[in-house]
């Protein structure tokens, strides 16, 4: 591997700032269309000061409706967003475990995603008996994979969403933020009684590189060649 290749992060990472704490999101390369669209919107500041406008405890917290930026108290939200959709990128190995991010959508038959609205999964932990019941009744006899059974009986999540919505990333830090927001008191439209606003930013090249080193148990790169390289390179980066 060349020096330049070693300096380039392998994924995009997004910080989510809320009044209940911060979280760090890793976007999957396997869902490139969703990944690139989300990074574009975050870099444009699209999500700044929007709300988690739909919150259901033991299920998920949803945000990304631009109408929430200046919404009146108790205004019903959830219909806003750009005038395009993202083609579905649903994959069997990317499931709705606790802490994942998924793309919201309407009932279109192609299961195309909203361009901006997303949800962070909270869900719950299931017993094996509960998963048996889920297969029989809610999934109409469809069997869960060993990955699903192991994940939903340990980490937890929302298994009935699998195969119907695109999962495109997961939280590396800050799952407790989801738990705190999910516990909010809400109105009849599942909107929190106290507004839950957030903002986001994409980690820059040096930050993402050092994060990936940290995740491998390595110290950040601070040598002369690294500083020289960073001085000539844009702090933003583009993945294939």
TrEMBL record:
InterPro entries hit by this protein: Cyclophilin-like_dom_sf, Cyclophilin-type_PPIase_CS, Cyclophilin-type_PPIase_dom, Cyclophilin_A-like
Annotated Pfam families: Pro_isomerase
Location of the PPIase cyclophilin-type domain: 17-195
Keyword field: Isomerase, Rotamase
PROSITE patterns (UniProt xref): CSA_PPIASE_1 (PS00170), CSA_PPIASE_2 (PS50072)
EC number: 5.2.1.8
Family statement: Belongs to the cyclophilin-type PPIase family.
PANTHER family noted in UniProt: PEPTIDYL-PROLYL CIS-TRANS ISOMERASE-RELATED, PEPTIDYLPROLYL ISOMERASE DOMAIN AND WD REPEAT-CONTAINING PROTEIN 1
Name of the protein: peptidylprolyl isomerase
Species this chain originates from: Sphingobacterium kyonggiense
Upper taxonomic lineage: Bacteria, Pseudomonadati, Bacteroidota, Sphingobacteriia, Sphingobacteriales
């Amino acid at each position: 591997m060349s020096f330049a290749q070693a300096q380039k992060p392998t994924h995009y990472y997004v910080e989510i700032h809320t009044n209940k704490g911060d979280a760090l999101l890793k976007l999957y390369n396997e869902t490139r269309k969703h990944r690139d669209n989300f990074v574009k919107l975050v870099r444009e500041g699209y999500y700044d000061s929007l709300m988690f406008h739909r919150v259901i405890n033991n299920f998920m917290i949803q945000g990304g409706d631009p109408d929430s930026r200046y919404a009146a108290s108790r205004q019903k939200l959830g219909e806003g967003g750009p005038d395009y959709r993202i083609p579905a990128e649903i994959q069997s190995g990317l499931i709705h475990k606790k802490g994942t991010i998924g793309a919201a959508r309407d009932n279109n038959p192609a299961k195309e995603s909203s361009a901006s609205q997303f949800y962070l999964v909270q869900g719950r932990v299931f017993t094996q008996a509960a998963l048996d019941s889920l297969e029989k009744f809610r999934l109409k006899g469809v069997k869960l994979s060993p990955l699903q059974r192991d994940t939903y009986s340990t980490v937890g999540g929302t298994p009935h969403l699998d195969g119907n919505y695109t999962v495109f990333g997961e939280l590396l830090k800050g799952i407790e933020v989801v738990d705190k927001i999910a516990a909010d008191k809400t109105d009849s439209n599942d909107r929190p009684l106290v507004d839950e606003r957030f903002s986001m930013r994409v980690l820059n090249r040096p930050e993402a590189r050092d994060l990936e080193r940290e995740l491998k148990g390595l110290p950040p790169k601070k040598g002369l060649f690294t500083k020289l390289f960073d001085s000539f390179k844009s702090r933003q980066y583009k993945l294939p």
